[in-house]
Design goal:
The protein has one domain: 3-Layer(aba) Sandwich (Aminopeptidase), CATH 3.40.630. With about 300 residues, the chain is α/β, with parallel strands linked by helices. Helix 5 links the parallel strand 3 and strand 4. A nine-stranded mixed beta sheet has the order 1-2-4-3-5-9-6-8-7, sandwiched between helices. Helix content is about 40%, strand content about 15%.
């Protein structure tokens, strides 16, 4: 079954040797925008180019660069800015999960957003998005959102895939955790960037999910908090429960049709408000507590010395 699965997936993604060589060579911003924008609802060439994404140095299996926008926080004396890792399109057939991130990048220079240090990846699974027919899995047929190294992955992830999904090809977790360049990049980026919060955008359940420490958001726009579940190998499980980094999973209501611009703005604004209230303030309180503790420890003892025997 596994060999048939991989054969079917690779057959759907197969390209000629000449095309592979074309993909493998360094690509310009104009070239990758020309490939991405036809798949992304509401994303124009101008919008893609204005995002000014840069290659991370990691590419997908088919050679498409994983692209990032790094936006430092506005300088604020004595305040450590919240680090936000924003990920779109971990599943290649969730087109709006990438398109809305491009839309948010147009608004990310607002004064409130500039409080935070952003690393933004609009398309984490370019091979799934750019397949002849967009598909959830990557070029190896792996569901990237089941490929993270949650405790007990070797036993739990294959068992869950077999028993709970009936070996659904769309949810194959891979043969080992972090077997894929895309999931490995996320894992390495968490270690490098040390985000205070991870926002992962999906579709089409139309809810908010949350894992990890911090108060869950009540709503972003019309999306209400409603736990979807905890799965072996998922980013929410790995980041939120194991790494103790709050993970907000935004499930847009439709994978193909974008929400109205006004609703996208409400989701964005509510996200910023939640980060400011529940992550930034918590970080500030922890920093203040640590500072008081350090000052107390360094304060000299003013009591008079006593004789010792």
């Amino acid at each position: 079954m596994q060999s048939l699965l991989r054969t079917a997936v690779l057959a759907a993604l197969v390209i000629s040797a000449e095309a592979q060589a074309e993909v493998a060579r360094p690509m310009s911003q104009d070239e990758w925008c020309k490939r991405l924008t036809p798949r992304l609802p509401g994303v124009s060439m101008a919008m893609c180019e204005k995002a000014a994404l840069v290659p991370t140095g990691t590419a997908s299996l088919m050679g498409f660069p994983i692209l990032v926008k790094r936006i430092p926080a506005r300088k604020a004396a004595g305040v450590q800015p919240v680090r936000v890792l924003l990920l779109g399109c971990i599943h290649g057939d969730e087109l709006t999960a990438s398109a809305i991130v491009f839309q948010w990048l147009q608004w990310i220079n607002s004064s409130q957003a500039q409080q935070f240090h952003w690393h933004v990846v609009p398309v984490l699974n370019p091979d799934g998005l750019l397949a002849p027919r967009p598909q959830r899995v990557n070029a190896n047929g792996v569901d990237l959102n089941r490929n993270f190294p949650t405790p007990g992955w070797q036993q739990d992830a294959p068992a869950y895939w077999a028993k709970k999904t009936g070996k659904d090809p769309r949810r194959f977790p891979g043969k080992a955790p972090l077997s894929e360049p895309e999931s490995k990049w996320v894992n390495d980026e968490i270690a490098r960037f040390k985000p205070d919060v991870i926002i992962s955008v999906h579709a089409p359940f139309g809810v908010l999910d949350f894992d990890g420490p911090a108060q869950p958001p009540r709503n972003f726009g019309r999306l209400m908090f409603n736990r979807v579940g905890i799965y072996p190998g998922s980013l929410g499980n790995y980041g939120g429960m194991h790494k103790k980094v709050p993970v907000v999973t935004i499930e847009l209501p439709n994978a193909v049709d974008m929400p109205p611009v006004a609703e996208s703005r409400r989701i964005w604004q509510d996200m910023l408000n939640w980060i400011e209230k529940n992550v930034a303030q918590e970080n500030a309180q922890q920093a203040a507590t640590l500072q008081r503790t350090s000052a107390k420890a360094e304060k000299p003892d003013s009591r008079p010395a006593t004789a010792t025997r």
